Amino acid sequence: MPVTRRAVLIGAAATLVAGAGGAGLVEAGALPGRARLNALLGLDGGGGDIPDVDPGPTVTGSWRSAARGTVVGWSVSRPPGVTGPLPVAVLLHGRDADHSTSFERLGYDRFLAAATASGVPPFALATVDGGNTYWHRRRSGDDPQRMITDEFLPLLARQGLRTGRVGLAGWSMGGYGALLLGETLGPARVAAVAATSPALFADYPSSSEVAFDDADDFRAHDVIAGAAALSGIPVRVDCGRDDPFADQVRRLRSVLRPEPAGALSAGEHTDAFFTRVAPDTVAALGSALAT
Fold it and tell me: Rounded distance, CA 93 to CA 194, Å?
């Protein structure tokens, strides 16, 4: 029987992990960790190709946010060739990222251009800096939700965008933030929520060290406990089955009514997964904002 490349990779990984220092090799990147090994073996569902199209016009700026107490950057991308007032979706970034990441690294501006060219109703995508706040008010006074509602949405309206009802989307920490802001604003202000690999934790002790100030902060901003507030809003939730947040995403999907669009599918907490589901995210936002 011929020895396959897959068998060689599995055997090599097992040998190295079993040997002294195997875990250190994984952490150092010398040995593929689970995500990298699954990619090599073709078990991660593959990545999404960022469309090879020119994005539409993008406007970028910054202001000093009173709500956040710092200078905040922002970007807006419109579909190519579309002028005049447009609905808008606010796309929230993940941890250790900023407003530029969604366009420059993940190509959402190009996904938007490709989607509208294929018939998705046109809308604008807007991104803004939220720091590592997990998109809620912190003990320090940094309040990214108030920044969005009281400062950023009025700024977008001055850019000629329709902000009466908006779409909300995000990946990782931003997926959590989109769900949380959707619960806060409700269906009167939110046309749709699309969360990709949302960073959801079972409890405060298991959460990221920067996600919540204390157990009370966690309880006050637990999107699974507050999921009923999303009733009346079309919700899409996607996550990789091997994502560390997959168990909590399953919990969220089990309590949302009606059952949200999206799925748990092959993949991990990687850009490859984020970009693979981006076309469905953009299509869902466009359809909801057109109604």
Answer: 13
Nearest one of 166, 100, 112 to 278, comparing CA atoms: 112
**CA 123, CA 126: separation in Å to the nearest integer?**
10
Query: Do 175 and 71 contact (CB within 8 A), yes or no?
Result: no
What does the pLDDT look like over 240-291, one tens digit per residue? 999 999 999 999 999 999 999 999 999 999 999 999 999 999 999 999 999 8
Indicate the SS3 state at residue 89: strand
For the whole model, what pTM was predicted?
0.87
CA angle 178, 209, 198 (to 5 degrees): 25
**Buried/exposed 168-203: b ≥16 CB within 10 Å, e otherwise:** bbbbbbbbbbbbbbbbbbeeebbbbbbbbbbbbbee
Closest by alpha carbon to 185, among 230, 129, 228? 230
Report cis status (omega within 30 of 0) of the bond before 144. Answer: no
Give 82's Cβ-side CA count (13 Å radius).
24
